[in-house]
Structures are given as C-alpha cells and as structure tokens.
## 1
Amino acid sequence: MKNIFSNQFTRYGLFAVIGLFIGWAVFHSPEKAEEKHNHSEEEAKSEIWTCSMHPQIRMDKPGKCPICAMDLITVNQSGDVSVDPSAIHFTKEAAQLANVLTSVVSSQKPVKEVRLYGKVQADERLLQSQVAYISGRIEKLLVNFTGETVRKGQTLAVIYSPELVTAQQELLEAAKTKQQEPEIYEASKEKLRQWKLTDKQISEIENSGKVQANMEVESTASGIVTARRVNNGDYVSQGSVLYEVSDLSRVWVLFDAYESDLPFLKKGDKVEFTIQALPGSSYSGNIIFIDPMIDPVNRVAKVRVEISNSGGKLKPEMFATGSVKSNLDEYNDMLVIPRSAVLWTGKRSIVYVKQPGNDPIFKMREIGIGPMLGNSYVVTDGLSEGEEIVTEGTFSVDAAAQLEGKPSMMNSISDTQGLTSSQTLSKTTQSENLTKLQVKVSGNCDMCKNRIETAAKSVSGVVSAEWNPADKLLRLQIDATKTNSDTVQKTIAKAGHDTEKHKAPDNIYKELPECCLYRK
C-alpha cells in the first residue's frame, strides 16, 4: 500500500475521484428529480380521450364511448385557445365524420324564382256562339261533330221556318205597292235583315218572286267547333245556340299562383314555361292579368299569360310548368345564405357561426331572414359579411349542442343561462329524446311541399320537417315523448297527401289544385 500511495499519478487520480463524489453530494437535489418526474406525469395527464361523434365525452384514459361504443380518440388540450362556455367544440376528426362544411357569408343580388303550374285554355275573347236567328226545324246539319274546323261564312246548318215563309210572302206583296207604300216595303225588308238575310238574298227573293222555305245558318267566325248543341230534326227557337266555336290562333296559359308567391309577381313579368305534352319545347310570355281574388278552396289566384298558337300545337287543358325570376330590389346588397344553413323552429331562425381560428368551434346565433330564394335565404340581420357559418351538417352541430345543454335549436340562450347542474342534465335528457325519421309522402310541387311541411309542424313534438319533391321523403326531427311517426302521418293525410300508412280522404284530395293531384 505504501508503494501504491507513493506513486505520484495514483495520488492525483484518487484526489480527482474524491472531488467528484463531494461535488455530486453537494449539488444533487432529490426535489428536482421529483419535479422532473411530476412534470412527465402532468404531460401524460394532459392527454385526454374523447368520442369523435360525441365531443362532450372526456376521459383520462382510452376506452369506449358510453353513448355509441365507438373507440375514444386523443385530444390535446394544451393549446392557448380560450374556451367559450356556450360554444360547441368539435375535433377535426369529428367534424369530418359528421360531414360538417362551412362557407363564408357574402352579399348578393337577390333573385327569387317562383315556380308556377297551370294549364292551357282557350282565349275567352275568341269564343263564338253560333245561334239560330229564327225559330224553326233543323233540316240538315252540315257540321256534324265536335272538333271540326270551320271558317267564317261557311254554312253550318239549314233551318225550315214557317215564319220565314210568311215574311217572304209579305215582302213580295209589299214590293207590288212599294211606290205607293214605301214604308211597308222597307219594313218587310228590315224584318228579313234582322234574321240575318243579306241584301243580296233579299234581292234574289224579290226578283225571282219565289219563296225560299229553308234558311242557311252561316258561321260568323273561324275556329274549332268545341260543342254541338242540336241534331237533325230538332226544333229551335230564336236565339238557341247551335254550335260553340273557339278560335285557337291565340291561347291563354292560366297558372295557379300560391298566395305566398303573389307579392313577387306583377304584370309584365316574363314567364318561361314548358308544356308537359311537348317535351323539349320551351315558351315564354308576359303576365297580362293577375286575378284580384283568391280561390277560397284552393288558396290560389290565376295568373294569365297570352301566347300565339299559329301552329296549333298548344291545345286546351295541356299542363304547363312555368318559372318567373323576380328581382327583389328592396333587398339589394343584402346577405344571402344557403337554405341548409338555417334551422327554423317556427319562432326563431338560427345558424352556427364558426369561431376564429383553425379549430372547428361553433356558436349558435339567432338571425332574421327575409324571402326564400329557391335554395337560399335573404338575411335581414344577425350576420356580417365575411363571417363563416355551417352550411352542411347543421343538424349534427345542433345535436351536439343539445346533448351538452348549450344554446341550440331547442334551447335559447336565455334558457341555458343560470341553469343548475340538475337543470342542465334535465335538458340534456330531453334532447336525447329527439328522433330523426324519414317518411314517404306523395306530392308533386312546391305547393305540396308547403302543405306537407305545415301539416307536420302543426303536430306537437315535431321539431323540424322538410319534404323533398325529388325523392318524396319527409325528413323529421321529433320529440319521441310527445309524438310519433303514426300521428304525424295521420295529420298529413288529413291535409290531402298519402303517406306510407295512411291514405288521404277522397273528398279532401279532390279539392287540391290540379298541379297537386298525384294519383293516377
């Protein structure tokens, strides 16, 4: 040992080891190690787990969602985004699965498209009644069937009239003394003129000295015979209608305008329409007349368009579908949003506005809406240009808000303020009773849509109702504790529309407008 410590290098090495040990003992702190350990534990605890379909679920470990049994996914809450208690927080994965899409609000020139349904009708001003100007017996009908084309001046029928025979004899006798009694002579001629004999016919009778037993009835207009009122051998009195003739060179197209569409229609508006029986053809004309009275049964007013029909393709009673594009000048430069973005409760119209930032965070907002423009609405207040709103998946966002007891379509902002935890739980339980349904409902047009949706929403417990004319499906959201599908279908059937389980009464169905009649 003495030789070992006598070595100079050995002594230096030993001193270095002792110095390192003393330094470790002095500067080592078990508290710092524990702090480091705790920091790693806190990082682990900061990672929470949630459900992609139910973001209100928060777990500190992986597992299954207690509502839908889906696998939970991780959420990192270490961000600096401030939390709004009334906002709905989605994960990006949840927003994608719920197909939540947004768009930026912008101002547009509002143009409302009004759909109209009607039929071709004969121009009432061009209808003529061919009458008998003298009483007698029909000896011969020269036009024998309805639909035959006649021209002005054509002989329609031959009438034998004893009165005509007597009047001609009076004329011949008066002609013998016309120099001495010109007044009687002129009176006898005037009598024949009143029976529509021409001066030429009267002169022929006077020159020949022969009495004509029969009188020809000539057409006073050209057109189509729409009705034949007599047969051979019938006795007719003066003024009796023999034929009805319609001139179809110009026709009317009479559209049914629903009372809610009348404010957007005016005389002179251009109507573009198609005829169901003539596919591929299109026509246009201007509104000439709008009926000032509304039909008390069908709740529609007639809108008239006049159009030339020189080719004769348009025939009375053909179905027509028209469209009018009305410029809403009073709403110029106002915001327009898609119809799918708006949830309508009957009293409130709400949208979900995306909060600033990249995260899918949405907040409900009540807005004022103006006229519906097809698949969009005019916004009168509640939104600003440039804001981003949910346009697809709005029901999914609202459902999440209802589950969390936050402001939603079912709960207004005032309803959610000052709630206790038990009240919030109660409202959450109510929202869990909401059920989405799809019901097949028969119908054709926009008037059917309004009638079906109004009938459905009149049922207590129906939160929303939207009927699509394309697939004939009525999409409902109902409170299962207050109503059910069968009750809603009965109410719709009473309004005149067949459903999957119930048929509309025949007397109600027959009162629907022509365009709404869906049964074949």
## 2
Amino acid sequence: MATGTLDVALMQRLALPDRTSGILLHPTSLPGPNGIGSLGRAAYRFVDFLVASQQTLWQILPLSPPGFGDSPYSAFCSVAGNPRLISLNQLVEAGDLEPAALGEAAASDPWRVDFEALESWKMPLLEHAARQFLQSATGPRKRAFEEFCHYHASWLDDYALFMSIKEEFDRRAAAEHYWGASWNTYWDRDIALREPAALRRWTDLVGDRPRLHCVWQYYFFEQWTALRQYANERGVLIIGDMPIFVALDSADVWVNPGLFALDAHGREQLVAGVPPDYFSPTGQRWGNPLYNWDAMRADGFGWWMRRFLALLELVDIVRIDHFRGFAACWAIPADEPTAVHGQWVPVPGEALFRTLRREIGDLPFLAEDLGLITPDVEALRDHFGFPGMRLLQVGLEDIQPDNIHLPEHHVFNSVVYPGTHDNNTALGWYSALSAAKKDAITQYLGEPLSDPPWDLMQLCMQSSARAAIVPMQDILRLGSEARMNTPATTTGNWRWRFPFACITDRLIDELGEMTADFERARSPAPLSAF
C-alpha cells in the first residue's frame, strides 16, 4: 500500500479473526541504540518475534506526536506521526545522514526512554537530515515527497505551521520560566485567533520551519507504511488507538475552534473527565475541551471522518478509547477545579458511526468499554457489533457473581487482557494485593497464582473471548518497575522499554506452545482471507 493511500477493499478484509491472540507494545518501548524505540530494524525483529511465537495481533498506543507529559494521548495533532519514532539508521541508508552522525547519541538506558535527552540530540539530527533531503532529493524521491504533501495538505500545512509557531512561543516561555504555554493562553491574541494578517506575518517569520515538519511527517509515514506492510504480509494485524478527546494545545483545536466548547477568545468552557466514583471522591478532571457536537453534526461529522480514515491508513483495527464518551460525556465547567460539579451530556455517537459505516462499510473497531458502563453504552456498542474489553485484573480483584471481567462471563465478541497500559503489570498487581485478596483468588481458581504473569496469560488464552492480548511486560514477567502509565499522574510515564536479550528461543517456544494449546495460533491462510 503506497504512503497516503487508503485501500478500502483491503481494509474491509482486515477484520478481527474468530480466535486469535497478540501482544500490546508501543513502538517507543522497542529496543535499540538511540534512546527510544523506532521504526527501524528492531520493529521488524519484533514482527518476526510475533510470527515465531504464533501471534496475530500487535496492539499499539496512539502514534501521534506526544504533548504534555510525553503522553501519546495528549498529542499536538491527532493525525500526525511522532517524529521521535523515525529510524535514524534508515535516514543514513537513504543518504540524508552521515553514518558518523549516529555516534553523537548519548549512552542510553535500555530499559527507559529519556525524553529530555532525545530533544537535545535526536531532533537536531532530524533537522539536519530534513535539510539535507530538501537540498538534495531528486527524481522519484522528491516526487513522492511532493505527492505526500499534496495528499495530506488538508491537515499537514496547518500542523506544520502550528508546530513552527509553537516552537517560537515555547522558546519565549522557557526564557520567562513560564510552563504550560498553550496557544490560547500564551500566544499573541491575533495569531491565537488565526487572524489572516497574523497568519501571513507568522508564515514569513517562521521561514522554512514548516517545511522541516513536513519532511519529518514524510519520513514517519514512509517508514511506518513499510513496517505495516511487512507485518501484514506475514499475517500480523495492527490494532491502533483512537483517543476520543484531543489536547487543547493542538493543531486540531487551534485550527477548528468552532468544533469545540470554547468561547470567542479561545478559552475552554466545558472540559472532559469522569464523575466521582469508588476510586476517586472528586472524580477525574482531564481538562480536554469537549466537542461542539451540534457543529460537528451540521458539518456531516467531517472532522471525525477525516480522523478515522487517517488512522485506518496506518492500522488495521481501531481501539476506540473511552468508548462510553460516544454515548454521553461528563461535562465539567472549565472553572471547576474538580469533576464533582459536572453533568452527563448526550453525544450523537450512533449518527457518527452510521455516517462512517456508509463511507467505509464494516467498521473494524474495538470498544474500550471499561469503567462506568450504562445500558446506552452497551446498546451503542452492540448495535454496531464492536467487540468490548475484559480485564482479568479487574475481575480477580473483586470476585463477585456479576463481575463481567471474570472468565465465566466473557463473551465471544470481546478482547481479554490481563491488564492494559493503564494498569500495573500482572506481577506488580499481584504483589501489591492484600493476603485476603490473594486467598480469594486462590479459592476462586482452586490453586494459587504461582507465576502470576503467565497464569493470567493462560486464563486469557483459555477465555471464550475471540482475542487475547497480553502486554509485553507480562510476557517478560516484569514487575511494577515496567509499568507504562499510572493514571492521574503527569510525570515518569510512557518511558518503559526493553532490550532484545529478553527474547530467548525458550520464551518464543513457550509462548507459541501455549497459544497453540488454546487454539489461538496464527492461521496459515494469507491475510486477504481474514
């Protein structure tokens, strides 16, 4: 599949197989010498590992450029790719970097991503490569870049300008020790509100910076498309992630303020979150601006159509984060410090999904239906036939007859996990349980968890759910030190990675044997048969 081309007929064949399994691993966690996982050799080796261990699914987190807290769920643009994932070795092979340039990388921890260090050495190398590309690219490569820019112009031009202006204001904010400089709070009023004269002036002021951002997106899409094709040709499907909300400090909101709950000055009026519950007496105030659904419906859901189609150019199946938000959202007045004084606001999710289905046919979506799920959410999910999610940690920590996360309540049209990127690892979770909860689990299962990560993985494989997906940390039997994210915290997350020495022949054999024993092994049929 060429970069920037959506083959709808192929996409409709990439449905979730009837009984299968896979691994959850974000590309930033891949091994490699340059401080962060990339789309280079290690990514291809990981696909080979999936194939060798009989796995069919590779689930990832959002691929967008991470914003606040380095979170992929708080991106500067919902449809752009993360430049930090670009493989420098591939740029050397393409002639845009000298081999000696890679020696500039500082020594890195094979278990942790150092985002701060990346900014000081990888981004300058990417800038050097992009300038070399713009100066020397000729023939088919230059034409491919220009075609890419033309095909993605509906979002790429605005994104590149937004990031270029943001770089300038971020430098000013850093000099003033001002943190959290969003476009609607720190930028000059005229450019924050996209006044035409300001747009023209800033386009001149930032010079060639937007062109560099365009090259980085070209690099990302070129490398990711090749990797996805490699996976698909070997029968591996990629499950991507669609965060329901976007970050306030993003090109999405700056360019389309009328589609969000903002006032005439670009300030938030309503923000997203969840109400108080057992886990938090004040709820969770996420702070993302809520959507102006009336405006979106009047536009025929055009913004959502473009966003879903853009993601389906990169992945085979879409996991919709916070699916319940397509039935109703918890709307919190922006001036409220907590989520206590919010209210449920209905959302036209059914109309949106009907529109999507008319455009692309069967929707290869997976609903993240965790948390407070009401009958209207279940009805929306089931009306479109989207698989839901089941978490064993949630089931085993509260063993009650009506807990749908316990194995006896799993339904076929669902995907079962030990836990997700927001949970502790299986080993970390079990180690932190009280003696009483461990006893309850032993009584429920008939025996104690002697090897918690693989015991939970076996329960996933045994499940009647159509797919079982296990975080890579649990495959490697790692503890809390390998946790990817702790919700409601803003520092220290998204940093876990691992060295390839962890993947041994014995591990591959044992994982493949368990997968085959529970009839989830990869089908020998070609991808087009799914």
## 3
Amino acid sequence: MQELIYRTEDISNDELEDLFVETTLDRTIIDALKAPSPVVLVGSRGVGKSFLFRIAEHEQYISFSHDKVMPIYVSFNRSSLIHTKNTRQFANWMLSILCGKIIRCLKKQGYLTSNSVPISIIAGGSISNNGETRIEKIISSFEESWQTAEVEVDIKGLPTIEDFKDAIEEICQQFKIKRFNFLIDEAAHIFRPEQQRQFFTLFRDLRMPYISCNAAVYPGVTFYGDSFQPIHDATFYYLDRDIFHENYIENMREIVEKQMDASSDLLKAISKNINNFKILSYAASGNPRILLKTLARAGKMNSTQVNEIFREYYKIEIWSEHSLLSDKYSGHKEIIDWGRKFMEIEALPVIQKKNTRYLEEGKKTTCFFWVHRDSPQAVKEALRLLTYTGIVTENAPGIKGTRSEIGTRYQVNLGTLFALETVPTNTALNIARNFDLRRMSEYGMNHSMYAEISILSNFSEVDTSTVLAREMKKNIDVLDLAQWQKIELKKIGINSIGEILTATENKLREAYYIGEKRARRMKSAALASVYEYLSG
C-alpha cells in the first residue's frame, strides 16, 4: 500500500516544493505571510495552514541573502504540556520559544561568532563553548512541567518584552537584517482561553519595524482577549478550498499525485475509477488530509470500498472525533453533544431529503443551511465547535433569508451528507455537480431544536492537569496515526500516549525495519498526533 503523508510535520524542507500544489488563494496567503503586516490565518484541522507557513518560510529563506528578511517558523503545539502554578507560565514559555528559535536561525546563518550583548540577552546569558544556552534549559523545563506541575520553573535569564525588542533591533542593525518574520503555528491550546488571550497580547506587543508576526488559528474556538482588536491588529485570511472552483478536482488530484510514483497501484486505480476519486474529493470538502486518509483506505478505488468509507469514516469516525471533545473537556459537553444531535437528526437529514426530491425533479441541489443571527448564543457556540472539527464551514455571514431576515449560511461537510445516501457512489456526484448557493434550509431564531440549549453553556476552563494525567494513560489507538505506525509502536512496548512523549528515536529504531530516517519521521508523526489530540 502506498504510504501517503498526511501531516506537514512529516515533510522535509527538500520535499516542500515538490509536494506544493499552488492555487490563487494559496499564493495570496503566502505573499501576505511574507509581508510586514501581521496576518492571522484561520482554518480547520488538515486544510493546510501549516503547509503554507512552511512554504512562506522556505521561500523567504531562499531569498534571505537578497531581501534580508529572516523567516522563523515556530509551532506552539506543545502548549498543552505546560503546567506550572505561575499564571504567567504560558507567556514566559512563548517568549522563551521565540528566543530559542532566533538563536538557532542566527547560528544557521553563521552570525553567532561572538557573544554580543543583544545576542546574550536573547540567549538568556552567554552562549557556552559547546553552544548550550540558558534559554534552551528554560524551554525544556516548561515542556517537561506536565510531569512535575508542582515545581516552579526558574526563568532567570528570560528577557522582558521590552528587552527582547531592544535586542532584536540591535541584532538587525548589527547584521543588516531587515526584520524577523515569525510564522507562529498552533497559536495556543484551543480549549484554554487564557493561553489564547496571553498569546494575542504577546502578538500585539511584539509589533515593531524589526518584527512581523503571523499566526495560524482554528475557527470557532479562538479567544482574542480585550487587548487584541482583530480589525486593527491583523489582517485575517480564511483557508477554505472552494469546492465550487472549476479547478477544484484537478487541484486535489495533483495534491495526491505529487506523493506517488507514476507506477503506483493507487494512482492506476484512481485513473481507472476517476468518478469515485471525484466523489471522495468532494466528500473531503477541500480538506487535503481527509482526502489522503480516505484514499489510503480505498485500495482499488472500486465502489464497494468507497461506499465502505462513507459507512465507516463519514458516518461513524468523524462524529466520534467530535464527541471526544466532550469526553476531555466536560465544560463543553452540552454544546458539543447538542451540535452533533442538531446535525445528525435535523440539518443533514433535511438537506438529504431535499436533494432526493430535487434530483427527481431535475432541480439544483443544496449543501447549505442558514441560521438566524438572533438565534441563542449557545447555538452559535455549538456551530463554531462544528467548524473546528470540519463538520460544517461558515460559508457567508450577513445573508438574507426568505423573509429578508439576516443570518449566517453554513456549508455541511459533503462526506457526512453523502453518507446518508443508500449507495453514495450512485448519487453523490450528481448531488455535488448541481449545488446552488441560493438553496438552503433555514432555522429561525426560535426553532424548536433550540429549546434543549436555550441556556448558554459558556466555554469553561477545566482542571487541565487532571485531564492531562488521564489522557496520558490512554492507548495510542485514540491517535490519528496510520495503522502500521500503531502496530510498530506496540511491538516495541509503546502503548500509551505518555510513552510516546518520552520515547527516543533509538527506542523507535528497535522496531523491525525501522531505520534512522523512518524512526525520525515516525516520532514526528506520533508527537504531532499527540499534541493535536491533547489540544482537542
């Protein structure tokens, strides 16, 4: 079976350009990320935010000798592991991460020939002869704090924001660097609003001529805080791959083909069953990771296998992933469970029944529903969480309904819609080819489904240390890893999430036929899955 790469973390810098399938939207976003003005990129899991950040970093790194803009890609995906009693722990960890990344980038460019004052400030003190810094020790202490939450992390040597900015200015002047461009992925733990508020305070405070900041966040679950004004402090871009674009299928196919040899059995199967490939492409609703994961299951791409994907993945697994959020974060349980019920019992069946009738009558089809702007706040919160897991997408706000009232139009994940068909491969393509934006199911401000959730269920921060301890004991089967990866990990005695975090590459190489390169890739994939799982 062809090994497909689902995650950007598994892609080396040498492979980036080879795997990149550029669209007009992609290029617009990349150019914005490279520009001086701050950008916030919003998108659901798996749509490609990290990949575009890495491409922007790669392009700026290549042009550094000419443009003198130093790109620094940094992921805050380990934020769920930060557990100390200090209320400023996350802000301190973020600043230490940025300092550490700057030191590494300066070293890579050959600028660390001496311990200048500004470099010492960023490094937390003098850099030792073997290259060790105080700032790296601070980072390690924070990222290991999940094991000893009662121990206070010593932040001696960590600069203040103002000292950090002054040092950056001096470094830029010393080495004739125009600016540092931070590309911050996984901005903060999605279910810890305080982390997100601290992040966007830092995001705003770092703004200066020698620093540009960009951040990738999830829709529906991001808290910006009072100090950050989205309209004034950044330009927002939304990464949604348009299923209505004339080149949509072609672009999705190219994404897949870039990972395969011309002789690949899967590539041959796609060519032989092109309509089934189109169905799975539409079902993924513009999400490359979902498409690659479902293709990996499809084997020969015949109708039996494709229909099985709808029965297993789109009818069961995608919903299980959504419901797991309430298991980990009980403060969200009511709105998470209601959102699933609303979609499974009301919105999706209504759309499916309409499409059956429309096709019989030779009319246009729909994948949309509309919610009145004055609907209960809890309903809006439930829909926002559904956008995080990719089950719905906010298509357009401020849309008029049939009575000229204003609301938001949402698009359902097409895979969940097709899964309601008796034989998806017989009808899905006709449904997808005939969508009309003007057709949508409407839900007014007092719809009967709202009665169960009329009282607002606020997001509430739970005792995450308790949650983390429980989650660390869970079997690796809950992780979004390929089955062969889980099998190999279990063979060498790695069965729990916590064991993945402490495993070394040498430990992974104990597995049969796992060499150095594959061990590094497996560890990267396993860690990325753990961090995503712990974040939500």
## 4
Amino acid sequence: MAFDGMTLHHIVNELKTGALGARVSQIYQPNRDEILINLRSAADGNKKLLLSTRANSPRVHFTRYSVENPATPPMLCMLMRKRLGGGKLLDIRQSGLDRIVTFVFECTNELGDKVIINVICEIMGKYSNVILTDENDIIIDALKRVDMTMSSRRLVLPNIKYEKPESQNKLNILLVKTDEVVEKIINLPAEKTLGKAILETVEGISPIICREIEHRVAGDKTLSNKTLNKDDKACLKSELEKLSDTVLTCSGEAFTLYHKGDKKPFETSFIPITQYGSLCESKRAESFCELIDNFYIERDSIDRMRVKSADLSKILQNLIHRTSNKINIQKRELENCVDREPLRIKGDLLQANLYRVERGAESVIVENFYNNNEPMEIKLNPALPPSQNAQKFYKDYNKAKTAEQVLTEQIKKGEDELVYLESLKDSLSRAASEKELSQIRLEFIEQGYIKSGKNARKKPAVLPPLEYMTSDGFKVLVGRNNKQNDTLTMKTARKRDYWFHTKDIPGSHTIVVTDGRQITEKAIIEAARIAAYHSKAKESSNVPVDYTLVKNVSKPNGAKPGMVIFVDNRTVYVDPELPSTK
C-alpha cells in the first residue's frame, strides 16, 4: 500500500479544507493502535479523524466507518479527553514530505487559560506513534512510550523534549530544483535500477511511484542510474517536474489498483499507473480520505476480529482436536468389539465339554459343532475351574456386546459434538463486530466450554439477523450465530416461509419471508447464494444448498444451538454471492 509522504500531502490538504476551525466533540481509543477524534464544525458538520499506528496499516484520514469501543476507555484516551475536549483545530502541518503530521489544537486548561496542545502522528510502519506535546514541545504522553530498554537514540516519555525521528537525508522535490535531484540520482555511489535510485534520493515517495517513473522513462528497456543517456536524463527531469507540480498543487487523483482477474485491490496511487499494462485496472475515488478508508477498512476489520477472537479460536481448535482423537480411539475399540462371536462359541463348546476338562489344564481340544465338528483348541486359565473358564468367555462376550452399544452411542454423540464445534468455528470466522463476538462468547459459556467472567450477569445486546432483499422483492433473513439461528428458524419464521442451509457444511440458517406469496425460482436461487455466502463454503463454487418449508424443520430435544433436522427438502447448486444489504 503506497501511503507515502506525497499521498499524505494530498490528505493533509483535504484535512485542512474539511477540519480547520472544527472543535473536538469526542475522543475514542477503540484499541491500542488507534485514536478516533470526532470533530464538529458549523460548516461541515461532524467528521471522524482516524489516527492509526497499526504496523501493517499506519495512516491518518477522515473515516466514515464506526468502530466499537471498549466499555472502559484506556488511560491515554481519558487524558486526551481531558486535555483536548472542546479544543479548536488551528492548524495541520506536515514535516516536509515525511510521514509526520502535527495537529495543533487551541484548548482550555483547568484554570480557564488558553493553551496549545499538539497531536503528532508519526507514520513509520511498526514504529508508528501518536504523541501529545504542549506548546513548548514537551511530551505530555504517547500512544507508545519508548524508554531506554527500547531505544537509546530517541526516547518518547512524558516530561521530556520531543525530538523528530532522524532524517534520511533525502531531497524534497518541493524545495529543491529538479536538476539537483537528477544529479544526485546519477551520482549515487552504487549502481542501482532507476526506480531504486529514485527511492533512495527523493523524500516521501513510494516504490510504486518510483517504478512508474522508471517505466515512463525506460519503457521496455532496463535502465540504471549509471546508464542514463542524454534523452533519458531529459525524460527523467520532465517526469520529476510533473510529479513535483502534482504534489505542490495537490492536483493528484485518488486511484485504487485492482488485479484484473480476482478484482482485489492491491495498491493505491495519486497518479495514473501504466506499468502493469492490461494486468490490472484502476478505479477513482472521490477523495484520498475515501480511498484510504475503503482500502483498509475491510482488512483492518478482519485483523481486529482475529485478534479479539484468538482465545476462542484456540479453545475451539483444542476442542475439535480432542473430540476427533476421542472418536478415533472409540472407533478402534468398536472394531475390537465387533469381533466378539468367537468368545460365545468358546463358551458354548467349553460348557458342553466340562466333563473332559481337567482342573488346572492350560488348554483343551474339543469338537466345534458350529463348524462340522472340526477340532478346536481353547486356551484356559489354569487358576480357574472349568465352569468358571466357560463363564469368563460369556462374560467377555457380554462385555463386548455392551461396549458396542455404548461406543456406538458415544461415537454418535462425539460426531454431533464435532459438527456443532465446526458450526461454532464457522460463526466465529464470520463475526464482524464485537457485539457478534460477545454473543458467541456467551454461547461458549452456556455450553460449558469456558467459565463466565466478572461481567457474566450483563448479557450482550441481542443483534437483529442480517437482512437482504431478492431482486423480485422477497425479504431474506440470515442468522449471525447458532443461537440466532435457533431464534430465527424456530420463533421468528412462519410455517410457510422457506428455510435454506448449505448441505452438510457449517453455515447460517437463511429464511425467505414469503408473506403468503408463492416463492419464485429466482428468489430460491438468490437465497441459496446468500446461504452459501454465509457458510464455510464462502470461497467455493457449485455449493449444494438444501431448502424446504419452515414447517418441515424441527429441533430435537436436547440438541445443541443451531442443530435441527428437516424433511421434504430439495437441493440446488449455486455459487456464493451476496446482494446489497438493506
């Protein structure tokens, strides 16, 4: 992702246009890596400013997405609310073309005096940080404190002077003549490809822009900083001048690049990208804030939920592994129980020939009347009388018979448990918010997989099912988790509504609300696609989906949440596809 200093220059320009003069109405810290500042102004209304220090997606921009917040705000969040609450945003400054932005707020302290508070956002990969300083550049606090055990060069601690990160000694094309930039590229000590030479020389430029300039200068040939001819130098100078003008005037356009095959976004840019030819396509966004917001929000949401559900995922994996091993062991024991008939035969033969068995004998040879009187040797326990030897064979036979019944029941119970655990795993993988995660966590507690915490009495808010609409006007409801699946199918849906579920694949219950109308073939296909999308087979194709009337679906007594049985069903094969959410 090309969130470089030049892109940031465009974003800062947008932030100045939409935020200067606005006042801080609220501050949130949804997690340890992000700060969200709500800004309110008479002209532009409310806007949310996101300061993110995530290692894989550090950035600064307006966001339109809401992020769930913890019940208790972290200490830094409370400090920022105290210091910045009601403050007025006076200025936004970028340090050259570095990825360092300073937000200057005029605030009121406890004595009622006007003071300046700076919020400095450093966007430097895993070293990204948000730092609060006063008007004298003394650090008030930071999102990530850095002490002597972490760095001996630059400390970030309260009550010490703020120092900028070390300069990389690159040239700012907004302040330096283009000839000077070209000269430095050519005179680098080592020979490099032109793109790498530009990256090493120019401040605030990303690899994709460097490669694009190289592509425009070199075309299909390979160029290094040491092999440029007169025409190449002139072309390089021209491209750098165009780039400088674009950045200086903030006249770039927000582009997202997509792989042409899978339509997945993989890069962004503020100039048209031609280096990939027909392998990718680009799409423009209305603004750079919108561009960055859309690019990261889905990936960050997935990462955030993965972290928050890590403990439940680990418990599930252990439960699935343990249950699978237990079933395998029971199946091996069952195989031994099945081969029990010889025990009964030996008991019968020994009982019929007790008179021939000497006390203390280790074995006896008798005629097997079950097999044409063929001679058969039976091993005996010399410590037992002949009659007790016979009874022991009967006892072992009955024990194996009982074990077969018990093991069959236990294996069935274990397999049902495994199906349920897989459904829990599927629900957990699709949880898109902390509220959904809280409901799944409650299900873990109710099933005895984890113990209830301190806030056990406070149950999470019940979320409504997901809602969609088919192209011909049928409402489609989808359960978010197992408990909601039960409620949706057994309580919400009516008998003449239709129920959908992926065949033998964990997934959500999907209901088509008919309202007394006859369901159409189009609605069946579209609902089946929705059901397939909300299942473990989301990334597959030609997914089998069962459907039937809700009146044909029932829940056995004592069944786990989301587990039902159904009859009179039909099956369609569809590719997962999701329509627009209502």
